[in-house]
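Data availability excerpt. The first of two example chains:
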Amino acid sequence: MNAKLLGFFSGFPTRHFTQPVADVLKEVLTDRDSLVFISCQPDNYAQNDDDSHGMHGMFAERDMAFARHCVIDHRTNAADAERMIRDASCIFLMGGNATQQFQLMREAGILDALRQSPAVILGVSAGAMNMGDPVVDVYESLTPYEGLGLANITIKAHYPLEEGLLKSVKRVSMSLPVCLMTDESAIFVSKDAIMQIGSVYRLADGEIAPMTQAQLEQIRNR
């Protein structure tokens, strides 16, 4: 594991970090020079700018403002994207369309730079999905694809799911265990520890049960 910390989030509907999540982040984010967001909607520049400013505001209100922040989308050339990742204190994979985000990272040539980065790497919703391996974007296909592989985990955010979507995810679980994350939950992975905040479940063979610490420990692969 190269990253200082991995943080997997489902979502924050109130657009504020919970206190337990903020406490973990504040302890590790002692270097707050550059915060780099990676878009999940690479062509929606106005929305990317609004979302990145708003998400930086979530850090700022918890006394974790960064000296600068930027977003990687289709405006960013490959050389600049690689430099941003190399210089980042914290990298945040945004939520939205997981397949489009992974394609953006591939096109920008930053997959290896992300895997090797010593920064704090965070992901929310689709971004959290892409940090794991394998990834299943059930909105696009039930066929898994290779993610960043920062941890051995397949995530579906925003649990509980509506019935039709849950049925699709259960089909995936017959061959691949899925981690179901509720909003405001988190999984943090460091070199020394793995912890969860809030409610996280494991779906395997169509059955749902709370994620145990022993199962969490199995996601570490770096």
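And the second chain:
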Amino acid sequence: TGLRAATGRIIDIAVIRVENGVVTGAFQSLVNPGMTVSDSSLELTGIGHEELERAPTFDEVIGDLLPLFEGAVFVAHNAAFDYSFFKAECRRMGMAFERPTLCTVQLSRLLYPGSPSHNLDSLMARHGIVCADRHRAYPDADVVRQFLEQLHAQRNEDTRHAIAQLLYGKSSTPLLERS
């Protein structure tokens, strides 16, 4: 519904669980935020007011979501943004949610420092990934999945170092040499 997790709410959510390169679970749903959503937010996503009014609330979908996160890393494009909203929704329900995160914006910046942009559209163009329904949760999550699948297929040393650096804060000699 907005840009700040403290005051905004989730209206569209999707999780794709991948283990060893195989999708082992997925969930997607619109979410009734219990508040008015700006027309600009709805225009961007293509979601209608009526769809949100009929959608389940976050507390009605959390039971389907949590098993997908067990023992997993929370991966997203601009992960801090999505993670903050998910944590805030859980906090509103009196639940704690803590997971390691991997941000594919940061990963793209590490692996492609010469690229002028690292937004999702640029990532899609750079890697030949097609997404028919941008700014919707499941298609955008699938773009992230495809990006990571491509990186995994390359089995590149820089990729392994970049992911380790982002997840664990370890320095990466090959990346430092390129800078």
